[in-house]
């Protein structure tokens, strides 16, 4: 895939993918459509009538970050579990797209971003004329929560360095460093699936969450074992998925980032707080 990095991109025409939401268990069809220059990514709930159904993919629209990144507009219309789709947009350099959804939650599909990469590639990624602007980080901004932290610092390009640490031997401590470059996301990150713990399933169900989760869309861990018959696609699939989530969450900046992201045990809440902290300090960034 060739990609001119310094101009904006959209898609050539519509394409769709359907499936159930991992938390709601409800079916939804996602249809991506072309969008104009500087439109960004905008979700549109086609099943909602009589009130504003569009939800721009921006950090300020994020309302909850428990078990996924969820956004709500001023009319109270929500879209949940947006991060895997947004990671595909960020990873393929698709700046502007309308994402129509006929339900409350993005389909989980195989638990990775790969099906979203496929739907965007099927739609055809096309160059636009306007220059692409990046959120250039001018000084370090950090959010800390105990041992967890997430930090953005100045740096050329967009590099992410993260670590996760789980007691189970199935995961343990895993680290990854990744630099955004044409083709790199699809090759190294997009296929990494979400994961969960069997002992938490009941608790999640009691909260009305995880109702669509299964071994078709989640790597399931019990004790030190992985229950999926097919096992992992790579030993470090877990940290690769966490990186995928970060890339999706950070695209809620409203575009790509020019800087270095470093984190220990990042999560959706930390990522959203980090973006809000950047935007709260005008000296910490410039769109350039
Ligand atoms: Zn995820």
Looking at CATH, the homologous superfamily of the largest domain is lpxc deacetylase, domain 2
Number of strands: 20
- Report the C-alpha radius of gyration, rounded: 18 Å
Total domain count: 2
Tell me the name of the CATH class of the largest domain: Alpha Beta
User: Which fold name is given in CATH as the topology of the largest domain?
Assistant: lpxc deacetylase, domain 1
Largest sheet: 7 strands, mixed
H/E element sequence: EEEEEEEEHEHEEEEEEHEHEEHEHE
The unique ligands bound to this protein are:
zinc ion
State the low-pLDDT regions, or none: none
Terminal Cα separation, in Å?
Answer: 25 Å
What is the typical, i.e. mean, pLDDT? 96
Q: What is the percentage of strand-forming residues? A: 25-35%
Helical fraction equals 10-25%
CATH architecture of the largest domain: 2-Layer Sandwich
State the shape. Answer: globular
Q: Class by helix and strand content?
A: alpha+beta
Describe the structure.
With 288 residues, the protein is α+β, with helices and mostly antiparallel strands. It folds into two domains: 7-131, 2-Layer Sandwich (Ribosomal Protein S5, domain 2); 135-287, lpxc deacetylase, domain 2 (lpxc deacetylase, domain 1, 2-Layer Sandwich). The protein is 20% helix and 33% strand. The protein has helices spanning 83-92, 114-123, 184-188, 201-206, 237-250, 268-280, and strands at 7-11, 15-20, 27-34, 41-45, 54-56, 62-64, 70-72, 78-79, 97-101, 125-131, 135-137, 141-145, 148-153, 158-165, 173-179, 195-197, 219-222, 225-226, 257-264, 285-287. Strands 11, 12, 13, 14, 15, 19 and 20 form a seven-stranded mixed β-sheet that branches. The relative contact order is 0.21. The chain binds zinc ion. The site of zinc ion has 5 residues, from helix 1 and helix 5.
